[in-house]
Specification:
- The protein is mainly alpha-helical and 62 residues long.
- The chain has two helices and no strands.
- The radius of gyration is 17 Å and the shape is flat.
- The N and C termini lie far apart (46 Å).
- The relative contact order is 0.09.
Length: 62
Amino acid sequence: MFQAYKYRIYPTIEQQIALAQSFGCCRWYWNYALNLCKETYKTTGKGLSRKAIQGLLPQLPI
């Protein structure tokens, strides 16, 4: 038997802003990595590994 719980949160205005910024950064990095994978595949015929993509994250400018 499986159980599921649903939660509803009510963040404050400051928390809503912080969440929106975090989600925006995640969306940007996802699109950046996806484009990089596509371009790498076009040029080399090989994709990038997860480790290679995750290794790029600390090197990005803030």
